[in-house]
Design a protein that fits this description.
By secondary structure, the chain is an alpha+beta fold. The chain is built from 9 helices and 5 strands, in the order βββαββαααααααα.
């Protein structure tokens, strides 16, 4: 529903901020990782994860797209709610969490407050393949600069759920055979080969 909010930081705490966007103050829960990146700013942009439960509607904000993406992966695991996901991102960096999940390091995940051995194993079991598919640079923010046609097609294929290395290989062969294809033509041709 919401992608990001960009506005003036009216209030900052290690657990939440109030962001004034167009005269409306939004109470947004944040991780310590995000707090450390925005604590000296007066204006900021937070990527939003809007969580709706029976008894609440809560905004969670992250300074990078990658951290939000990891948060959404974490809360997709049964038994990991938004508060636990935020706790995980506050305890260790998103890069350390991603590395621990990909490498199956249960003890690293288990060190986080509120995560027992079974929860740590479940997180790794459910997310290891997803994070491996995204590749090691999944947490690096996407460049704002205009993407080339093959890069745009690759981004679309990865968002559709295809592994980055596999999609890259197919796209490279398609671009070599016909470098003048549009993004749509590349995606359609790639879908036939993947």
């Amino acid at each position: 529903m919401y992608d990001y909010f960009n506005g003036k930081l009216v209030f900052k705490a290690p657990t939440h901020v109030v962001l004034d966007v167009g005269g409306i103050g939004y109470h947004i829960h944040i991780s310590l990782t995000t707090f450390s990146q925005i604590k000296d700013q007066e204006q900021c942009k937070l990527y939003i994860s809007f969580q709706v439960r029976e008894d609440s509607q809560t905004l969670y904000g992250f300074s990078t797209e990658g951290e939000r993406q990891l948060f959404n992966h974490l809360i997709s695991v049964s038994g990991i709610g938004p508060n636990t996901g935020r706790m995980m991102l506050s305890s260790i960096t998103p890069e350390e969490i991603q590395s621990a999940i990909i490498n199956g390091q249960v003890q690293v995940i288990q060190k986080i407050k509120g995560i027992g051995p079974k929860s740590a194993q479940r997180v790794i079991l459910e997310l290891q393949d997803k994070l491996k598919k995204q590749g090691p640079d999944a947490l690096i923010p996407l460049p704002i600069a205009k993407q080339s046609v093959p890069e745009e097609a690759l981004t679309a294929l990865v968002m559709l759920g295809f592994g980055k290395p596999q999609a890259e290989k197919v796209l490279n062969s398609l671009v070599t055979s016909d470098p003048e294809q549009t993004v749509e033509q590349l995606i359609k041709a790639a879908l036939k080969r993947l």
